Structure formats: C-alpha cells, structure tokens
TrEMBL record:
Its EC number is 4.1.3.36. The keyword Lyase applies. Belongs to the enoyl-CoA hydratase/isomerase family. MenB subfamily. This is 1,4-dihydroxy-2-naphthoyl-CoA synthase. It holds the Pfam family ECH_1.
C-alpha cells in the first residue's frame, strides 16, 4: 500500500509524493477534468517541483474520478466554457495557451512521466498523455482528438509526435475524422503501453514506476533525452548534450580544467587517455 503524502495544496489538481514517485491528479471531474489556465499553471508548478526534487524518479499523471455520474476521465482538453478569442481566459482576464509550456515541461524533465488513463483522454487531454513517456490505460479508456470539430488543433507534439507513435496514416485519421478509440484499439496502434482493469490502474502504474526506480537514474535520464533528440531538433540535441556535459563534469578530466583555473595554472590535460 502506497502511503501518498500531500506535497502541496492546489485548487484544480492534487499533488502527492511517496516512495520516489510524484502523483499529479487533475481534479475537475465535473467537467471530465478539462483544464482551464489555472489548472495548467498549477500543473506546471507541481511538475517543476517534481523535476527539482532529487528524491523523485518517476511522475504519475492521472485524472480524478469517477465523477458523480459514475464516468471516468483522464482529461477532456481545454475548458471550452472559458475559451475566448485569443485562448483560454485566466482569472486575470488574460487569454492563454499555456498548455504548450506544460507539454514541453513533461517532455524535457529528466524523470519519466507515466500517464494513467481511465475514461476520456480527449482533445488537449489526449495530447497530454501523448507527450508522457508511457501510458497505462484502464479498460474503460477512450482516446481521441476533437480539434476540427470544436475549432482547434494542436500542430505541435499533438500532430507530429502522435504520428511518430501511431504512424502518419493513423495520426491523420485521428485528427481528420475525430473518432473515439477504445483501450484495445489504442494498444493495437501503439498509443498506449498496457491495458488493465480500471481498479488496477494506479497499482499497475506504481509497479511500473517502482521497476523504473530500480534502474540507474542517469541511464534513464540519458535515454529519455536520446528518445527526445530523435524528434525535437536542436532543442532535443541540447537536452541530450546537456546530459553529456553533466556526465563530463563528473570526470577527473573536466575537474582538472576547473581546478587549474582556480589555482591559476595551466591545465594538464595531457595526462588523460585519448580513448579509441
Ligand atoms: C469528453 C466527452 C466525450 C465526454 O462526454 P460525456 O461523457 O457524454 O460527458 P458530457 O456530458 O459531454 O460532459 C460532462 C460535463 O463536462 C463538461 N465538459 C466536458 N468536456 C469539457 C470541456 N472540454 N470543456 C468544458 N466542459 C467540458 C460538459 O459540458 C458537461 O458539463 P455540463 O455542465 O453538463 O454541460 C465530451 O464531454 C466532450 O467531447 N468534451 C469536449 C472535448 C473537447 O472538445 N475538448 C476540447 C478540445 S480543444 C483543446 O483541448 C484545446 C487544446 C489546447 O489547449 C491547445 C492545443 C494546441 C495549441 C494550443 C492549445 C491551447 O492552449 O488552447
């Protein structure tokens, strides 16, 4: 039994930590966990906290539920009730499209993020699970994009990375036809990693997280950035190269450079082997 501790209090999300894991739960079940700007701001705060926490090796992202009508949702995308002409209207009255910042944070943080999807993952909510490293689906999960039906589209990761996952033809079908797909169909097209009964969703996610936590965190970190580098252009290479720099800083050879500077002497790099 995981002893989840409240990590911080928010209005639209729940944020817990336990045993090397952080869990972020979108908590607006009355609107199928649709997000408003505040929801996204809170998620960015929680993800940024998890990223900085050296005890946290995996983040679980999920949706609260079931709602009072018994239905589950991971996330139904942007809250259409606060959608204005220039984006989603925040409490300050300013329109925002801040979910893109959240997508980048999930993608670039060094720890793997596992989406636990029960019920609807629709629209911008579908893109959220797409940008996670892994997705475990409950047997009641339903996936789909609605953009062209509701006057929206995500031409970033929501289109290009989706196509990397399921292939160009399938990604175009998903976006052009706006159909809904059940958990088995999602598994068959490579959109999710596993399907489990809904009551086992969290325990399965915890088991996957704990298996990852048994592995080398630096190896996992480098692998995440290596997978990203394949798709993310110069930003992806920056991430991967940042890890190379991190590892280089840990060597005696790199430390000789810093030490020589501090001691106001010429560095002796000739002592280090030129490995084949
Ligand atoms: C998810 C459904 C298929 C579920 O259907 P059903 O079970 O029949 O429930 P409903 O009765 O429809 O819904 C229950 C209750 O929830 C409210 N609700 C559901 N979804 C939303 C929503 N997205 N916004 C606001 N409210 C929602 C619904 O109104 C009901 O409440 P009542 O009080 O009873 O009215 C179905 O609900 C559904 O299809 N929902 C809409 C899905 C959708 O179209 N989402 C938006 C897609 S666009 C998007 O997500 C923006 C993406 C985005 O943010 C973005 C992308 C790229 C660049 C920038 C941006 C950006 O930041 O905008």
């Amino acid at each position: 039994m995981t002893d989840w501790q409240i990590a911080a209090e928010f209005e639209d999300i729940l944020y817990h930590k336990a045993d090397g894991m952080a869990k972020i739960t979108i908590n607006r079940p009355q609107v199928r966990n649709a997000f408003r700007p505040k929801t996204i701001t809170e998620m960015i705060t929680a993800f940024a906290d998890a990223r900085e926490d050296v005890e946290i090796g995996v983040v679980l992202l999920t949706g609260a539920g079931p709602a009072t009508d018994g239905k589950y949702a991971f996330c139904a995308g942007g809250d259409q009730k606060v959608r204005g002409d220039g984006g989603y209207i925040s409490e300050s009255g300013v329109p925002r499209l801040n979910v893109l910042d959240l997508q980048r944070l999930i993608r670039t943080m060094p720890q793997p993020v596992i989406a636990l999807v029960a019920g609807y993952a629709i629209g911008g909510g579908h893109v959220l699970h797409v940008v996670c490293d892994l997705t475990i689906a409950a047997d009641n999960a339903i996936f789909g994009q609605t953009g062209p039906m509701v006057g929206s589209f995500d031409g970033g990761f929501g289109a290009s990375y989706l196509a990397r996952l399921v292939g160009q033809k399938k990604a175009r079908e998903i976006w052009y036809l706006c159909r809904q797909y059940d958990a088995q169909e999602a598994l068959d097209m490579g959109l999710v990693n596993k399907v489990v009964p809904v009551e086992q969703l969290e325990s399965e996610g915890i088991q996957w997280a704990q298996e990852i936590l048994d592995k080398s965190p630096l190896a996992i970190r480098c692998l995440k950035s290596a997978f990203n580098a394949d798709c993310d252009g110069q930003a992806g290479i920056q991430e991967l190269a940042g890890n190379a720099t991190l590892l280089f800083y840990m060597t005696e050879e790199a430390q000789e450079g810093k030490q020589a500077f501090l001691e106001k002497r010429k560095p002796n790099f000739r002592q280090y082997p030129k490995l084949p």
